[in-house]
Amino acid sequence: MNRNRGQSRVPSFAILLLANELMRAVADNGVPTVTLVTIISQILIFLHIIPLPFGNVWDVCLSYRSIVDHKEYSRLPFGNVWDVCLSYRSIVDHKEYSRVILSQLTHGDDWHLYYNMVSFLWKGRSLERRLGSIRFAITLIVFTISTAFTYVLVNKLIAETTEDYSYLNHCSVGFSGVIFALKVLTTHFDESRISYLMGYIPIGSKYAVWGELLPFGNVWDVCLSYRSIVDHKEYSRVILSQLTHGDDWHLYYNMVSFLWKGRSLERRLGSIRFAITLIVFTISTAFTYVLVNKLIAETTEDYSYLNHCSVGFSGVIFALKVLTTHFDESRISYLMGYIPIGSKYAVWGELVIIQLISPNASFVGHLSGILVGLAYIYGPLSYPIEIIAGIVNPLFGGFIPHSSNNYRNYRRYDDRSGRSGHRPNRPHYESYVPNDMSEEEQLRRAYEQSLNDNRNSRPTAQPTAPPYPTENSYNYPQNPSDAERLRQLRLRRYQQNS
């Protein structure tokens, strides 16, 4: 029995993100009618709000075979993508022509829908304004049908050429075929000669669509699980699994999160110590993941946890999140940028929220990262990092503080050779200059510091000498001209040398 029949899906994080992108586009410069209706229809179909009709009597025939052979089979398209996916067998052998349309109105998951619709949003908006709504709608219909039959034909040609007849069973869903056809049109109409793959990689506009065909590897070859490490001794997965992501959006989300955490922590810890911390966290998170899955399997007697396989850098990112909240001097953090929560509990709140909005996320992987971060802050994990850093850092001429749990007592420095590290706080001005201090304020503070240094390094002036200006008595002009500033600097130098 299909439990999904008549039920709608709860909008996930990817759907909410897509809705946000769509609203931004509407607010920015509007979205033409056909493009907007197509995207909204795809979303409503994915959420089960718009049901897809059965195509023809062959659906009933196929449902009968499935019940007889497999004992359980749902004809509702949302129940199983295999019901509507497009293949040579389904079209040529079984005459299921409804799949020509239904396969391209169905997506495998929410991120598949999100990626396709965001891509279609920008291509559709551009092309519909160029072609007009009616012509663009006709183009979409023709492209949808043509792409489906071309897919069937290409699979047949590959099967005959390579004698690998598994291609006849290859089954696909999604709107990406039509989107690639639209991509050819947009690059054809593009007056610039250069396009950018993923927004960064320059490539000739005529070849951009081919660059997007570059394949990804198989995550099952590198994903991390208890079985792969303990039973099969595939220790390379400890590293490879965390350097691999399921898709481009998985990579995007992780790297944006890592960007902000990494930037903050590397400036605080120094590049060498931060690199060592990343390596230790990567290894520790992997083995913690294996151990936690084993403990859950033994506790719940659900041994499927031993086969749970994950990829991605999110475990390490959660460990870094523990560090950033530990070092955060504010008592309040904001989950998703909006929900206030105590900084110490922010990482736990993020763990729960991510699991709610993305149930397919690796809860055990994220939990393992949190445990590693806590082991660093409150447990023994800081000691191996201290030992390794103490050995490695002198090779680069840097300085590492002795205690890793007292970073608030150290300030970052950068010397002219590009090295960075930490040194103890000093009461003098040169130990720390806020980045947001204006040039005039920095110059004033430097002048005051030079006066303090002069007091400590040479005999004090005679009682009849005028006193040095203090912070309260010194008036520095707010916006002096270059000539005036140069005159003042010369005057001060003369006063110091007199």
Description:
The structure is a single chain. The chain has 498 residues and is mainly alpha-helical. It folds into 3 domains: 202 residues, Up-down Bundle (Rhomboid-like fold); 175 residues, no CATH class; 62 residues, no CATH class. The chain is 55% helix and 5% strand. The protein contains 19 helices and 6 strands. It has a two-stranded antiparallel ribbon. It has a two-stranded antiparallel sheet with strand order 3-4. A hairpin with a 5-residue loop joins strand 5 and strand 6. Helix 13 packs antiparallel against helix 17 and helix 14 runs parallel beside helix 16. The longest helix has 30 residues. It is globular, with a radius of gyration of 31 Å. The termini are far apart.
Give the SSE layout.
Elements: H1 13-29, H2 33-46, H3 57-70, H4 88-93, H5 99-102, H6 110-131, H7 133-162, H8 176-189, E1 194-197, E2 201-204, H9 208-211, H10 226-231, H11 237-240, H12 248-269, H13 271-300, H14 314-327, E3 332-335, E4 339-342, H15 346-357, H16 363-378, H17 382-392, E5 410-414, E6 420-424, H18 439-457, H19 482-497
Antiparallel strand pairs: 1-2, 3-4, 5-6
Helix pairs in contact: 1-6, 2-6, 6-7, 6-8, 12-13, 12-14, 13-16, 13-17, 14-16, 15-16
Name the shape in a single word: globular
> What is the helix/strand order?
HHHHHHHHEEHHHHHHEEHHHEEHH
- Termini separation: 96 Å
Q: Low-confidence segments, ≥5 residues, pLDDT <50?
A: 1-6, 54-79, 399-440, 453-480
Q: What class would the helix/strand composition place it in? A: mainly alpha
Give the biggest beta sheet. 2 strands, antiparallel
Number of strands: 6
Give the overall average pLDDT: 71
List the strand order in the largest sheet.
Answer: 1-2
Q: Considering DSSP H and I runs of 4 or more, what fraction of the residues is helical?
A: 55-70%
Quote the CATH topology of the largest domain: Rhomboid-like fold
CATH second-level architecture of the largest domain: Up-down Bundle
- Tell me the number of structural domains: 3
CATH top level assignment of the largest domain: Mainly Alpha
> What fraction strand?
5-15%
* Annotation field: number of helices: 19
